Amino acid sequence: MIEAQGVSKMYSRGVYALRELTLRVDKGEFVFLTGPSGAGKSTLLRLLLRQDVPSDGKLVVGGRDLAQLTQRQVQAYRRSLGFVFQDFKLLPNKTVLENVSFVPRVLGMADSQQQRRTFQVLKWVGLQHRMNAFPLELSGGEQQRIAIARALVNDPIIILADEPTGNLDPDLSLEIMNLFREINARGTTVMVATHDRELIRRVGRRAVTLDHGHIVEVA
Fold it and tell me: What is the mean pLDDT of residues 25-53?
């Protein structure tokens, strides 16, 4: 599903965020990216979102070389992804229902289909009863569940998450990770960036450790 072949990303003054990274993630796999701040985790996620392209090497997702995509193809590619942020990025003046249905509305889905799909994913994350609430009326764990529902609403083949439990306590963090495991059990490829080694140990999935842009351990 994801194949990085000698991928490097250099920024100004010859500073590398990633250097000669080679990694394969199979379809339906759950993988953690871990390592200290500045290790390259977020850079790799940005490349996978096609917000940037490698300075060298090749990054292939679902058989597509991301650097070779046209702008129209980039938009189509992003529709196949779901992304979950650490700070939720919910629209504060929109209800839960409006936050989650925003994606299918932008994609031009019919109103009845928008509502049906939105209710389905809210029910899956256990928050259909809060669909008329606003984000600031929710707990941190509830807000992250809404963010996950939003990432799921377009039925993506890959879910990417950047420190999705960084603002949550340990019990809520495990609860959110169990939700990612359920997503993965349905066949979705999941990649989660986190520095929380204890959480990785408790979840028990393959972990790829980065340091200064290099893979230093795969466990």
Answer: 94
Distant-in-sequence, close-in-space partners of 23: CB < 8 Å, separation ≥ 6:
2, 3, 4, 208, 215
Of 176, 175, 169, 171, nearest in space to 147 by CA: 176
Q: What is the DSSP string of 105-120?
A: HHTT--HHHHHHHHHH
Q: Cα separation of 158 and 61, whole Å?
A: 10
CB 107 within 8 A of CB 182: no
Residue in the structure block whose two tokens are 């995509």: 69
Q: What pairs with residue 61 in β-bridges?
A: 2, 64
11-31: pLDDT as tens digits: 877 889 999 999 999 999 999
**Residue among 126, 143, 156 at smallest CA distance from 91:** 143
Contact 79, 107 (CB under 8 A): yes
Look at the chain and count its residues. Answer: 219
164-181 b/e (C-beta count within 10 Å ≥ 16 → b) = bbeebeeebbbbbbebbe
Q: How far apart (Å, rounded) are the C-alpha atoms in residues 53 and 7? A: 10
Distance CA 53, CA 65 (A): 10
0.85 cut: is pTM over it?
A: yes
**Single-letter amino acid code for the residue at 129:** H
pLDDT in tens, 57-80: 999 999 999 999 999 999 889 989
- The distance of Cα 181 from the centroid of its chain, to the nearest Å, equals 13
